[in-house]
Design a protein that fits this description.
heterodimer; A: 354 residues; mainly alpha; 0% strand; globular; B: 255 residues; alpha/beta; six-stranded mixed sheet; four-stranded antiparallel sheet
């Protein structure tokens, strides 16, 4: 039957795309592992990977580079899928993890921790490391996470009152986000020079902060999200036809939107709390994959996740090779790398947008 | 099949009643047509039947069952919807139609869902379109896909909001004949709204004239008169009979 063969062609194309993306992630992970400021040769890297090289080299690979590569894979996937799900949920191409003010709230939480607690109360020295480390190495991440979660719950709670109209969610997110930004500005106004620089440096996304433990926490949350979202692929597909149509097809639209927005926001909050702000991944990657592979969530969820990992791996490798010894902020590199590609994709085809 | 009793609805607590005691009855396989001005409550009535909006009071029964208490998926297997403005995501035609089965399979489509979709595509002569992106199709074709998707729900009733709103005359005829075929061949009831009164007369079995949130007149073709049309639309028309068919002409003497 003709239907079958045409569809089989489509499916083969999708499977091939996913396989290529997976291969790219694996290949890039190794490239990323072999590039760094210590100028190890590839042979040395391979030796160190097998735990045969010098102690220092083994430490560089196993304690610095591997956690970093894993963080790039996990956070890239998480941020990208969060963006995709928010775009579908809110029927808005501009929606991304920052739409709900998640990142702004995280920045405020981290600033509060660094400026008011680590800098103001607990420490009198002016060496930078004490600001980010503080009394507990997780204090800043925890504060960032708590504030972003509180912010999400506030917005989603408010929106429940209004039956979850997507437009309302976006506007509420912008409003609440700007409150956090304002509060951050006021906090920074009263900060000491050192506290301020520590706070600003925190906001630069940095994969170097990742450890095996943070990677594990991120991986659990991101995987839970991916599994849930994949499970709901058809419901998200139905949501693309609009709320009324989706409801008439039997989809519990309000509940789906609430749960998936919450989960997408928590994924973002966890990644941002550990790594700092890594912008634009949640916009670029989903859009590029949707342009190329279409909007079927059975494909676009895994494809967005993989392309998010790819972008972050690329950006991290670039940031470490360009930074002349110290890594440039990876958040800036994702935009620098992603934006031209993004623009090329947007303008390469006419008509259809979303 | 469908019985609506004294249905009231308003969008906000202190707002005006958009539906003000609507009564309506539609039998199995009948084509019912709502006629009324813009804003008379047609779309809102559709939305309450589909469970998209919750009415303030009144009852909706489907084959004697309380539709307002039925869960979404159960309802979706009885009543399907073809909305007024149709947009899908960038999906293939096949997947778009398969989506209509979501109330049956939930998470992952099975063999019988795929068979159902293939049968519908064959029936509607859409096989050549199966692998194409719905977003690339014309308005009429998309409407046809929306009907195919609604049929995939295997409904007993199809709610069809202004099917010919944005279509040219060729596509209009295509969609109306498709609707008629669905009703006659499959015995699926249709509840729809149309602006063109001649199309309505051509297609409908029962007519519901709606004004200010109420159904003022209901019945067969015989109730479509100059006086009723004037009352509903404040528009003067003349009805002439050509070859035994009622034809409505714009303009005429005030009755």
């Amino acid at each position: 039957m003709r239907v079958r063969s045409d569809l089989e062609k489509n499916r083969r194309k999708n499977r091939l795309a996913l396989a290529l993306l997976t291969a790219a992630v694996i290949a890039l992970a190794f490239v990323c592992l072999f590039v760094g400021s210590s100028h190890m040769t590839i042979a040395e890297c391979v030796d160190a990977l097998a735990k045969r090289g010098s102690a220092a080299q083994v430490r560089i690979i196993w304690n610095i580079r591997i956690p970093r590569v894993l963080a790039a894979i996990v956070a890239g996937a998480g941020l990208s899928v969060s963006g995709l799900i928010m775009q579908t949920d809110l029927n808005n191409p501009m929606a991304s993890p920052s739409t709900l003010g998640v990142s702004n709230a995280a920045v405020f939480g981290a600033n509060l921790s660094i400026i008011a607690f680590a800098g103001g109360f607990l420490d009198t020295g002016n060496h930078l490391s004490s600001y980010t480390v503080g009394a507990n190495p997780y204090a800043t991440s925890l504060m960032a996470f708590l504030f972003s979660t509180a912010s999400i719950l506030l917005i989603l709670g408010l929106c429940r009152l209004r039956a979850f109209q997507p437009g309302v969610v976006v506007l509420a997110g912008i409003a609440i986000g700007s409150v956090w930004t304002a509060a951050t500005t006021i906090l920074q106004f009263y900060a000491t020079d050192v506290g301020l620089s520590a706070a600003v440096i925190w906001t630069f996304g940095d994969l170097g902060r990742a450890t095996y433990r943070t990677d594990l926490i991120m991986a659990v949350v991101v995987l839970a999200g991916l599994v849930f979202f994949s499970f709901m692929s058809w419901q998200f597909n139905a949501l693309l036809s609009g709320d009324a149509a989706a409801k008439s097809m039997g989809v519990a639209v309000d509940r789906l939107r609430f749960v998936s927005m919450l989960l997408a926001s928590v994924i973002t909050a966890v990644c941002v709390s550990f790594l700092g702000i890594i912008g634009f991944v949640g916009i670029i990657c989903p859009h590029v994959t949707k342009r190329i592979l279409g909007q079927d969530h059975r494909v676009s969820i895994p494809a967005s996740a993989l392309s998010g990992s790819i972008l972050l791996l690329l950006a991290d490798t670039a940031s470490r090779s360009l930074g002349n010894g110290s890594a440039l902020p990876v958040g800036a590199i994702t935009s620098l790398l992603g934006a031209p590609f993004f623009l090329a994709i947007i303008f390469s085809r006419k008509g259809e947008h979303r | 099949m469908l019985e609506i009793e004294n249905l009231c609805f308003r969008y906000s607590r202190r707002g005006p009643l958009v539906l003000d005691g609507v009564n309506l009855e539609l039998k199995d396989g009948e084509i019912g047509i709502l006629l009324g001005k813009n804003g008379s409550g047609k779309t809102t009535l559709f939305k309450t039947i589909l469970g998209i909006e919750k009415p303030e009071s009144g009852a909706i029964r489907f084959d004697g069952e309380d539709l307002l208490r039925m869960n979404r998926r159960e309802r979706a297997r009885r009543i399907a919807y073809v909305p007024q403005s149709i947009h899908f995501g960038a999906l293939s035609v096949y997947d778009t139609v398969l989506m209509g089965r979501v109330s049956y399979f939930g998470y992952k489509a099975g063999r019988e869902d795929e068979t159902a979709v293939e049968t519908i595509l064959r029936d509607m002569k859409l096989e050549d379109y199966a692998a194409r992106n719905v977003e690339e199709l014309s308005g009429g074709e998309r409407q046809k896909i929306a009907i195919a998707r609604a049929l995939a729900q295997e409904p007993r009733l199809l709610v069809f909001d202004e099917p010919t709103g944005n279509l040219d005359i060729a596509n209009e005829q295509l969609i109306l004949s498709e609707a008629r075929r669905v009703a006659r061949e499959k015995g699926i009831g249709i509840l729809t709204s149309l602006h063109d009164l001649n199309q309505a007369l051509e297609l409908g079995d029962r007519f519901f004239f709606m004004k200010d949130g109420q159904i003022r007149h209901a019945g067969g073709k015989e109730i479509v008169t100059e006086a009723v049309i004037f009352e509903t639309f404040d528009a003067e028309v003349r009805i002439v009979k050509i070859e035994g068919k009622k034809i409505i002409i714009n303009g005429g003497q005030k009755p």
